[in-house]
Amino acid sequence: MPVLALLSAVFVVGVEQTLQWKYGATGIIGLLLLTIGIKAKSPTISSIGAVVLAVLVSGPAL
């Protein structure tokens, strides 16, 4: 069980660092809103986070 927790923590830190490097603080805020919304079971907050991430990812294509 500790190995699973360690692997998931490494994965989360890796995703956060990638978002910070590629999309800056806005990417971290979007991921934070999405995570908080899912954990709090709030569709509004998670939707806002998902939209922020989607706009960041599709921004260069627009």
Question: What can you tell me about this protein's structure?
Answer:
Helices cover 87% and strands 0% of the residues. The protein is mostly helical and 62 residues long. The chain is flat, with a radius of gyration of 13 Å. It starts with a helix and ends with a helix.
Looking at how many chains there are and whether they match, the oligomeric state comes to: single chain
Low-confidence regions? none
Shape: flat
Integer average pLDDT: 83
Task: Write a short abstract of this structure.
The chain is mainly alpha-helical and 62 residues long. Helix content is 87%, strand content 0%. It has helices at residues 2-39, 43-58.
Show the helix and strand layout:
Elements: H1 2-39, H2 43-58
Question: Which properties best describe this structure?
Answer:
62 residues; mainly alpha
